[in-house]
UniProtKB/TrEMBL annotation:
Recorded coiled-coil stretches: none
InterPro entries from the UniProt entry: Gfo/Idh/MocA-like_OxRdtase_N, Gfo/Idh/MocA_domain, NAD(P)-bd_dom_sf
Pfam families named in the record: GFO_IDH_MocA
Phylogenetic placement of the source organism: Eukaryota, Fungi, Dikarya, Ascomycota, Pezizomycotina
Name of the featured protein: D-xylose 1-dehydrogenase (NADP(+), D-xylono-1,5-lactone-forming)
Signal peptide residue numbers: none
């Protein structure tokens, strides 16, 4: 999957002359120095490329389970040519012990997220950790306690949440013009074969499973529901398709749940996640299902956000009007949003239309880290710890309803 993301990114960068922008960029004399824990395949799209277009941070180092692996990734992306050169480390702890590192990005397997986030916090680093933040909701609470003790930032990398297109929808939901939210459906499917059968996403010990890897769908349901992060969660159905050799792993999950809170109308959510979608007729890979979609049913409108997980690439927001009886009128508008919005205005950021979701995310992380260091309050877009806990409370409850063990036990 990562090679697909990298290929799309390279095409995107070519079309937007990003290499020229990188060559003209002047870095701050006092940048946030970021290290990466793992030579993961996602690194280029998720952090290496975004850092190259950000004036206020630099890539300091990459750590892997062996020095050879770290050196190989540095060589692959010519990171030794940076000023100063990116350093390789043969263990994660060696990188954390380097006092020059201000912050770390953690793309390790899910089951290692909480452990190494806590170790990074205790080493005095800010942390940008891949989704899901931990193996279960209890671990998120442990991470939050450590972050408060360390006085450092921890942010979960639900990168789609930082794109102006997502904010455009949420702002209008909160504004009330479409009426109250009645339901949210989110789906994300990956065709079988895109992930190897021995991929870490199929490992229970590493907190794998469709509900974990594609937690985007639960994140979208929670975010667009408009419900507070401490809302009650009631799972009414959870139907998994189990891994053929490990019934603790969900290759797919189809779950329905309700988010409710005092004084607000409950919102029914439907989430579908699949990391091994069977081929059509047994032979045709369903590549068209790669487009993630979220549909929000409101009293006065139906809003469909196509490609919500990576809106940098060809997203659309279709708003269909409803009449007084809640029926579709046939009138619709289609929007595409690339920059701005009130969420980013709070942080004084307009952004650029060519910024990827990961670049928007990095903008928020750097500003949040610097604000924390300066004793200031960051007011821009963020995935806060309460939201991270809410998403995993949903996932934990879904696994329980499905009769499956939650991760991290």
């Amino acid at each position: 999957m990562s090679w697909i993301a990298e290929a799309l990114l390279n095409l995107h960068n070519y079309r937007n002359s990003v290499s020229t922008k990188k060559s003209l960029l002047e870095k701050s004399p006092h940048p946030l120095r970021i290290g990466i824990l793992s030579a993961a395949a996602i690194n280029y799209a998720a952090i290496i490329d975004p850092i190259a277009t950000h004036p206020s941070c630099t890539l300091h180092s990459i750590a892997a389970r062996s020095l050879t692996r770290a050196e190989a990734q540095i060589k692959k992306y010519s990171l030794g040519n940076l000023t100063p050169p990116c350093k390789p480390y043969g263990s994660y702890q060696d990188l954390l012990d380097d006092d020059e590192v201000d912050a770390v990005y953690i793309p390790l397997p899910n089951g290692l997220h909480a452990e190494w986030t806590i170790k990074a916090l205790r080493a005095g680093k800010h942390v940008l950790v891949e989704k899901p933040m931990a193996s279960n909701a209890e671990e998120v609470r442990e991470v939050r306690a450590e972050a408060e003790k360390a006085g450092r930032v921890v942010m979960e990398a639900f990168h789609w949440r930082f794109h102006p297109a997502a904010h455009w929808i949420r702002e209008r939901i909160d504004g009330g013009g479409w009426g109250v939210v009645e339901g949210v459906e989110a789906r994300f499917k990956i065709p079988r074969g895109a992930l190897g059968r021995d991929d870490i996403r199929f490992s229970y010990d590493l907190a794998g499973g469709a509900s974990m890897d594609l937690a985007y769908v639960f994140s979208a349901c929670c975010y667009f529901s408009g419900q507070p992060t401490d809302s009650d969660i009631t799972v009414t159905s959870a139907t998994p398709r189990l891994h053929p050799s490990d019934d603790r792993i969900d290759e797919a999950m189809d779950a329905t749940f309700t988010l409710s809170s005092p004084g607000a109308q409950p919102v029914t959510c439907h989430a579908i996640a699949d990391i091994a979608l069977p081929p059509l007729l047994g032979i045709i890979p369903q590549v068209w299902e790669l487009t993630s979609t979220v549909v929000i049913e409101l009293m006065k409108a139906r809003v469909e956000f196509s490609n919500f997980s990576v809106p940098t690439f060809m997203h659309s927001i279709t708003v269909r009007e409803k009449d007084g009886e809640g029926k579709l009128t046939g009138k619709k508008t289609v929007e595409k949003v690339w920059t701005g919005g009130s969420e980013w205005e709070k942080a004084g950021v307009e952004g650029e239309a060519w910024w990827t979701t990961y670049r928007w995310q990095l903008e928020a992380f750097v500003k949040m880290a610097r604000a924390k260091e300066g004793g200031e309050t960051y007011t821009g877009p963020v995935v806060n710890m309460e939201e991270s806990e809410q998403v995993l409370r949903v996932v934990d409850a879904v696994y329980e309803k499905a009769g499956m063990p939650k991760r991290g036990l």
